[in-house]
Amino acid sequence: MADSAETQELVYLVTGGCGFLGEHVVRMLLQREPRLRELRIFDLHLGPWLEELKTGPVQVTAIQGDVTQAHEVAAAVAGAHVVIHTAGLVDVFGKTSPETIHEVNVQGTQNVIEACVQTGTRFLIYTSSMEVVGPNTKGQPFYRGNENTPYEAVHRHPYPCSKALAEQLVLEANGREVLGGLPLVTCALRPTGIYGEGHQIMRDFYHQGLRLGGRLFRAIPASVEHGRVYVGNVAWMHVLVARELEHRAALMGGQVYFCYDNSPYKSYEDFNMEFLGPCGLLLQWLLRPLMLYAPLLNPYTLAVANTTFTVSTDKARRHFGYEPLFSWEESRTRTIRWVQTVEGSA
Ligand SMILES: NC(=O)c1ccc[n+]([C@@H]2O[C@H](COP(=O)([O-])OP(=O)(O)OC[C@H]3O[C@@H](n4cnc5c(N)ncnc54)[C@H](O)[C@@H]3O)[C@@H](O)[C@H]2O)c1
Ligand SMILES: C[C@@H](CO)CCC[C@@H](C)[C@H]1CC[C@H]2[C@@H]3[C@H](O)C=C4C[C@@H](O)CC[C@]4(C)[C@H]3CC[C@]12C
After folding, report:
1. Which end of the chain, N or C, is less surrounded by CB atoms within 10 Å?
2. Which of 159, 230, 257, 300 is catalytic?
3. pTM of the predicted protein model
């Protein structure tokens, strides 16, 4: 990519750009990538908010498309310098079939890789997930681990299986020759549980609390630590990786990085109460709370909810100078303000 940070000549493609994370990546790129000439947003479902982005100096191209359709992906990728691939089916609740999850998350990722190779795009960043590592089917805790911590990654659920396969495809594609003869440079980012403005599960918990008279009921031991990371910091890490990947290809190519910031280590419920408490909800004990969470809970999500999985690493800082853009206090304030705007809020 160009050396001059002021020359607007780069074309980026963000797949899944209308999703929870994708929207933050899109907005972060427009705010913090001065070399952007065109930003392509590829998604099955385009959001109406995209229209407001078309008034700025960067050409914003909304592309309604399906990553399972190779020709649609190739058309969207052609001419892009960088692809940030966030599109995926984040389904751990059994809403879609295992086949569909595989088709979107694995075949869709393969389609993105092949499109890069065939059209000459050299830089591919993949949004992977903590679940590529765990928690595993044995319920073994991963306590403040890092990218090198030994852990038996054993999966059976379609979603983590699909993320693990897709990540493997991306990392194996690093170094492949693309059209034009230069090598493809890839890397994968592994967020833990992302929170922040637009987080649907947080919205669902808030609405449930309102329905239950301002109360939520604890179902997970407070001792179980869940890794959580603010969506703005995850978006920032994506932007930073995309910027540094060319100059640090030898170091970063084919690597995985956990997404992390200074969000505190807490149980899933206690962490959510950092935002829902200031919005008027209380967390209480109940004899049999699980019946209240039926839609969210199945054997898999219950196992994940009850297994410690936290990360403590500085690999992203060491490899490409990542520092969280938003402090914990800022992340918390922004999320609280968003919850307060959620329909039905007090
Ligand atoms: N939310 C989290 O806590 C979390 C944690 C770790 C990793 N991730 C990963 O981050 C990525 C984004 O997750 P999210 O939470 O923003 O989910 P999301 O569902 O909000 O966004 C996913 C986007 O992908 C799009 N999409 C789905 N199928 C598509 C297809 N066939 N073709 C084109 N677009 C398609 C959806 O329309 C949506 O806009 C996913 O790859 C997910 O695995 C999420
Ligand atoms: C008992 C309920 C009432 O308090 C709480 C149930 C919480 C679960 C629904 C969530 C607990 C852990 C979550 C997962 C984790 O944050 C990481 C994920 C990885 C990401 O790639 C996709 C989302 C998820 C699987 C996330 C889903 C929801 C939980 C299982």
Report:
1. C
2. 159
3. 0.97
